[in-house]
Amino acid sequence: MEQLVTIELFGQPYTFKSESEMTEAKEVAALLVKEVARVETQQSGKASDITRLAILISAALNIANENFELKRNYSDLLQELSERSENLIRTLSANMQ
Question: Which of 28, 64, 80, 93 is the most buried (most CB within 10 A)?
Answer without folding.
Answer: 28
